[in-house]
């Protein structure tokens, strides 16, 4: 957990040597996919203080954009991370960020994977056990993705954690009524979640059988 207790004012983009700002417009050819927005670093600190990862985890960010979550998780926990992104422009920026990140923090760069693919077509690897989503697409695509995740867990039994940031009600209803995922924990953002209850993380768990 290298540097996990940095000051809340840490400029992580500067620390990592990357650029993951929300500035810029990135055209998406697929209407069911939503615009890029990186999860605020302060919120990531809150999430992972409550839900730390281990080096044996494989975190997969669906709709990974410029890769902010990937570099943050790898830096602190040294776990394998994969970003799945449909937008070519964002994918190129993420690749540049990966190159710059390893210039500042040398290591085995295969532990950070960047996949240019539609979420509903992505082949879930048997090592993937933590999935992160920040409302990247429609309910239809979410349902397809969850089916693929569940099928992967059936084929290669393992516990699966699903982290939803700013979770949609329709996502939550689907998980509750049509999947084996159970709500494990809700992580609020101090001073923010009380004003906007949707501004939180919800962590779901599907146990191996």
Notes on the protein architecture:
There is one protein chain. This protein has 209 residues and is of the alpha/beta class. It has a single domain (32-206), classed as Rossmann fold. The chain has helices at residues 12-16, 41-50, 68-77, 88-104, 139-155, 169-178; strands at 58-62, 80-85, 112-116, 130-133, 160-165, 182-188, 200-206. A seven-stranded mixed β-sheet has the order 3-2-1-4-5-7-6. The radius of gyration is 16 Å and the shape is globular. 36% of the residues are buried.
How many domains in all?
A: 1
Tell me roughly what share of residues is in helical segments: 25-40%
- What is the CATH domain class? Alpha Beta
**Which spans of ≥5 residues are poorly predicted at pLDDT below 50?**
1-8
What summary fits the major beta sheet?
7 strands, mixed
CATH topology: Rossmann fold
Mean pLDDT, rounded to whole units? 90
Within CATH, the superfamily carries the name: Vaccinia Virus protein VP39
Task: Strand order, main sheet: write it out.
Answer: 3-2-1-4-5-7-6
Inertia-based shape = globular
Helices and strands, in order, run as HHEHEHEEHEHEE
What structural category characterises the helix and strand content?
A: alpha/beta
The span between the termini is 30 Å
Q: How many H/I helices?
A: 6
The rounded Rg comes to 16 Å
Oligomer classification: single chain
Report the count of strand segments: 7
Please give the CATH architecture. Answer: 3-Layer(aba) Sandwich
Strand content: 15-25%
């Amino acid at each position: 957990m290298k540097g996990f207790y940095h000051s809340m004012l840490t400029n992580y983009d500067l620390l990592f040597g990357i650029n993951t700002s929300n500035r810029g417009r990135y055209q998406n050819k697929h209407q069911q996919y939503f615009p890029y927005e990186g999860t605020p670093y302060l919120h990531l600190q809150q999430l992972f203080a409550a839900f730390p990862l281990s080096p044996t985890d494989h975190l997969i960010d669906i709709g990974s954009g410029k890769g902010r979550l990937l570099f943050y998780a790898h830096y602190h926990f040294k776990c394998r991370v994969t970003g799945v992104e449909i937008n070519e422009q964002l994918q190129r920026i993420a690749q540049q960020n990966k190159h710059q990140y390893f210039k500042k923090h040398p290591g085995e760069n295969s532990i950070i994977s960047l996949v240019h693919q539609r979420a509903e077509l992505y082949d879930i690897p048997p090592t993937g056990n933590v999935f992160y989503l920040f409302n990247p697409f429609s309910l239809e695509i979410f349902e397809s993705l969850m089916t693929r995740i569940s099928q992967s867990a059936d084929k290669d039994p393992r516990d699966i954690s699903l982290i939803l940031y700013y979770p949609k009600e329709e996502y939550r209803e689907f998980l509750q009524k049509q999947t084996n995922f159970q709500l494990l924990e809700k992580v609020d953002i101090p001073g923010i979640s009380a004003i906007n209850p949707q501004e939180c993380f919800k962590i779901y768990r599907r146990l191996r059988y």
